[in-house]
């Protein structure tokens, strides 16, 4: 893959803490390239690798239309608006209603979607210091962070100034920007409320993201968007960015939403109907129980046909939209209850059941499993500002006590793999110079080694004068596998002389609200949760480690690793990184080594997404990320993916 960008000079890197992008993470979520002028798919992921195991293919002549797919969701929907959600489970509802100008297949390849073409037009050799003339003075909050009423794009802490969305147009008008992409939109795309999508909708959709739950994940790269004409929009990035191709686009909203919906976003609990361009319209929601969606009669791809997708070369007769009439999402947080609903025919599909049930579904005549290697991991995040967890020796000691192999085999029945490094293999193409060598190098520091851990912990507690056992609580969600993992970790730690660890569980959405609280990091709790990242390696660093992402997914404990932030800047925002994959991989390898040394987080197991489903639901394959298991399975032309109901 080749992208052009500007080099980051040493002086620029040293200013990373002076001129900061407002955001950090690339659309990571909590889990319960150049496209060329022809607008074709650009490889942003893992090349020809298909992470779907035993992919099921459908004969288009055998597809049956109609019926209601019943999906069992193991967590509540924190918001029906993707700009106000940090939950991977909720993404399964979002993907039915909302779309973006691009889409990605299961291996991460980027394809234009609502856009007919998506093309990088130019890259300029600038860094964020170029925005200083456009900045304005800002106030600071109680933590010394610069704040403003408008969405901040770039901060200059030393100068007490910020660049906000109000100043960004002036910078662009003067030619100050890092990248410019152009999207040529399909004509005739309509929203569920009848509005026709135009370039103005795309440009103004970024207003919805301002100061939202995912603002940090958007404004780490995005600068400004403007309509060139009715169906052409230019989208600008702050600086040259190796991840811009799939990070700059956002969800596209109708004007009704942009202009009339409050800061809480589109959510029926706030009397605001979710409205998008997707293949399903929102029908109803019974809080905490179920949501219902019906097929959108005026779906744009039905009207335009697959030939409107310039990259399409699939089978004749492949459907232009999902072939079912309705989707019902039932919220059943208890794994056993959800499994019983599947067994009794009350739902057709679910994921994330207790792993000890997988063998039964694999061998059952009326059920099957769909397994995909996932871009995800489980991780422990320590209260790094609270003694004694502020000493890296304590954290490293715990890291070497963790029974990763036993967790993978005994808790997840071999459906997950030990996480000896902080990066899933799904994102390793540009995230490591040699992934296998990295694992071999770091495994001695992360594999369970009680003797080495005891030595580190003894040194730390003696130097600190800490009384043992150190008492702490691991907080996690009520997923049975996650609870068992937390209990095993607590048991292993408590079996040493150094710790007395308890476990407390919360329903997923309750846990998320709790750990995202601004004072949570001071409470001395340990969090065990899952991260569903992106195909970009930076998402697995930024989300859980960058201070810019504190209070959003997924930095709950005020983790701050400034030296590694500087390397991450080079690994993403430099010409070497975007033009030389080896350079980018080498810089990321330095980051992974540094994270194991500092150990603000411990990564336990890498995820697989495992769907359990009735054989009446034919053709389903599971997506790489848990946020899109339902919509991808229903219909994804990028992989010629479609599923249908056969209830005969």
UniProtKB/TrEMBL annotation:
Gene Ontology CC terms, in alphabetical order: ATP-binding cassette (ABC) transporter complex; periplasmic space
SUPFAM superfamilies xref list: Periplasmic binding protein-like II
Signal peptide range in chain numbering: none
Keyword list, A-Z: Signal, Transport
A single BP term in Gene Ontology: peptide transport
Keyword Transport: yes
Keyword Disulfide bond: no
InterPro entries membership: Peptide/Ni-bd (IPR030678), SBP_5 (IPR039424), SBP_5_dom (IPR000914), TAT_signal (IPR006311)
Ranges where the Solute-binding protein family domain occurs: 178-496
GO molecular function: peptide transmembrane transporter activity
Protein family: Belongs to the bacterial solute-binding protein 5 family.
Descriptive protein name: ABC transporter substrate-binding protein
Organism of provenance: Haloarcula salina
